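Dear Dr. V.,

Thank you for agreeing to look over these. As mentioned in my earlier message, I'm a first-year student in the group and I'm still getting used to reading structure tokens, so any feedback on how I've presented them would be very welcome. I ran two proteins. I've put each sequence directly above its structure. The first is here:
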Amino acid sequence: MSGYDTATDDGLLAAFWDYERALRTNDVPALEHWFLAGPDTLRSDGGTTLVGAGHIARFRRSRQPPGPRRVDRVHLRPLGGGSAAVVAESTRPDGTCAVQSQIWVSGPAGWRIAVAHVSAAAPLLPTISEPAGVWRVAGPLRVDPGPAAAGALSAAGPLSGVRLAVKDLFALAGQAIGGGSADWLAEAPVQTTTAPSVAALLAAGATVAGLAHTDELAFSLAGVTQSYGAVPNPAAPGCLSGGSSSGPAAAVAGHAADLGVGTDTAGSIRVPASYCGLFGLRPTHGAIDTEGVLPLAPSFDTVGLLSRDPQLLATAAGLLLPPAGNNRSVTPVQLLLRVGDLIDGTDPGVAPAFESATVALAGRTGCAVEAAPDLAEAVDTWLPAFRTVQAAEAWAAHGEFVTKARSGLQPEVVARFEAGRELTEDAVARARAVLAGARDRLAELLPPGRALLLPATSGPALPLDLAAGEVDSARVATLRLTCLASLAGLPAVAVPTMRLGTRPMGLSLVGAAGSDRSLLELINRPAPWDRP
């Protein structure tokens, strides 16, 4: 039985999703229909076991529906003898999680539930009680949005009451840009204007909760700096938060902010979103203004967003993205291309978690799923070219500072910058030619209406005490996944629907250039039973 191809499960997935619809809509006759008739059927919940279909039916008639929830993962396991186990993991709007487990049996009437167990909802993740390790400047901060946005300020705007955690790469009037380095901060001037992207969010009613830490000059994916240490991960205590938008991710995951404003060059939104259990958007390159943002590699730099709520992510992005003025930007995604060979480089346990999350996403959104063409061999060529151009541009932007302040930076960050020091113009030109070919191939693979589905990272959040070499190995493995959107300038969203043990991990959806709004519509698309 396949975990993602509904055509090969002999109707079990269709039965499961109809049962889920019946639960959500409190369709009592349908609920009774899906339980196996007879005295031996079992249903357990909260320490109580109901025995017999009649007992279960009476319970159903008096019970309130479970309320809204998002099914994140569906695991199917054949048990033999015409039976199978289905385990579904779901998340409620308040962030609590629950699990329902069922034994289905196949008979003359089709699949029916013989045994069901529903777990109690897990408690909310802990919140950040102290700002230490998250904020470079704790707020709330009074920030002048500038004359262009001041006239549009509205306390009742679409972001009224939304608290922003702004990555310490953005210009905020009255604050210096810290760049994740005490040495950089010591020389940084106080900004007189606010980055247009932040100003637009302020004009919509948002406030600044604080300037949140970033990895050193945004050239890392770990969430650790020489000057400030490791940013905590509220979603996975004792683990890295991911970088380089580490501070905003931790603030949002810990409920100290509602929306993170960060950047993504090679995965700096998607990695912390994955590690911290958040939704994240890396937009089409150039779609959101990067003025007033400290650069790393301008050919790939983007302004991105992080949120616990996909609707808030879409609302905020809608204020920053270009208007939806052509068919490409609004074509609904209907086909998910599921990567295959790129899974081989991920951690043990990722493949089955990816499969179960794919089943849930396809069933919830109504998308078809097909296998993507093999990409691993191409990525082996594309990733070195991407890193060559990134290193060359990063050295051009900050080489002088890195040379002067190298003792105050993480050695691995210094090494990444210095990799660009000796690159020749010919080497960079050859790398750009490789990337041009990669963009063409990915554009052919991803016309409007399609999205590439892959893990957001090579594994869940890494333990804080992991050796530097192991962290770097995980970084390279993750770059094999994140580089696809980055090198082609494509939009990508991270969706927190995977989990390995107690650690969250994200799916990533990569769409056609300009299809940002389509990806956001997809992750907010109501399940079929919730649609009018």
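The second protein is here, in the same arrangement:
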Amino acid sequence: MAELSARGRRAALEDMARTPPEVLVIGGGITGAGVALDAAARGYRVGLIERDDFASGTSSRSTKLVHGGIRYLPELDFALVREALIERGRLLRNAPHLVHPLSFVLPLYDSSRRPVGLPVAVPGGVGLGLILDAGLLLYDLLAGRENVARHRRISAAETAKRARGLRPEGLKTGFIYSDAQTDDTRLTLAVLRSAAERGALLASYAEAVGMLHEGERLVGVEVADRAPGTLGETWTIRARHIVNATGVWAEEVERLAGDATQLEIVPSKGVHLVFAREALALGDEAVVLPETEDGRIIFIVPWQSSALVGTTDMRAERADAGVADEREIDYLLAHLNRFARRLVTRDDIISTFAGFRPLLKLRKRRTPARLSRTHAVVEGEDGMLTVAGGKLTTYRQMAEDVLDRIEAREDRPATHPTRRLLLAGGEGLAETRPAVLDRARSLGLAGEIAGHLLRAHGADALGVLDLIAADRTLGEPLVPGLPYLRAEVVRAVRAEQALTVEDVLARRTHVALEDRLRGVGAAEDVAALMARELGWHEEERQRQVCAYRRYALEQAGPLASRLEAELAAAAGMD
């Protein structure tokens, strides 16, 4: 069993350099994590490197859904929908603490003409109810035995009751259908921890800066240590099979290897707005805004303490830092207010976030909405395998396809161990749940805190409670009103390879999204806890706090001036 800790990270790099892994994965998002787990589960010696934090790119910036994608039905992409629905069912079984069923309310208005991205407008909206009913029936049938629940049609009155934040005027009818929801970052971490439990060596802040060839064959990677406070050492890691799983950056890695690019990847930028649930009168069901003028689907999704509204789908020339801009915020607000019962303004926004999807460009596809969400595995002339495209929901299938290619190279029969493999935190969850609730109660923690720990850590929540039992101050919240505890900072360093304050506030927890101050007020406390764990000097602790403040202001984008004013006001009250 390898150690997924901040201190164990250097040992992992040394081990990879000393004893070459059979499979080396470049990229620590959900796809790379999936490849590492599948390879380790099949008995390979595995290494993985990621140039930033795990899940710091696309894999922490999704709509947090595990779904087939009803928007792909009008595009007749039935194979993609079927694959995603099957994988949705597997994730519900394999990660029961992190993936949960979620009901969606789809309203239909008198004014609706192209709901859920229908390719053509229906004159007068005649027959739209029947079309949607048939489409959702197909969605159910494509899921087969993996279906969560059958869709059903509901009255206008029930639609208005379930979607209380939308205006009731003009409602004709509505539909309820089911998909699932996850915590994308913690899902990635669970996959990585599962890989580490099977011996995979994992290192964040380790960037591929060069490639090693013997003849025409790629045999290794030059890796620069980018961890905070390190001396920037470079390691040579050799491997028999090298997998490029870097998402929207896959072409960059292909060029680094000297390969002709095998795939044309078009980054598509997706922006989300985060609100308090009360601002949108949102309960525990998601709501689908029935249509936009560009054929997109916008969801209002209950997530943690908040409500997410998104997403956009804008073609980007390159994947940058991923910050929402004025135009994108206005786009989402305009479509939200087209249906919202009360006017929603920028003042209601808690935070924003943006990410880039790695869409594959296929013939006769012209716009991001028409680009393919399917995935592909291709082999370069030097032997490097590149996997790209796909979506969060299908990460396991993508990884399986990569390992099937490797098994074919090795002339070994393909096995598929991850189809029924419980992820870290999922094993023994049912038996552990009562113990977690009792232990939390004995430590004076509220029921909602225990629920949060179970959702975030599964059966491993007992480990968090052990930390609190040893030091009761670790049971205090990082931010009043949010469930994240100081103990989770310690666990993030010891068991989730967190190396920076940003790693903790933006990804190990979601304070950066759910707190109106984006976690800046908690940065000092987090840095102090991490300093104790990692041996930071005062200079490094202060540098981390300042770096996090810069990150928060950068991510705020057009809302940065408001954030600065609120931070100043909060400092004045202190």
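From my reading of the second output: Residues 538-556 form the longest helix (19 residues). Residues 25 and 48 are 5 Å apart (CA to CA). Does that match how you would interpret it?

Kind regards,
E.
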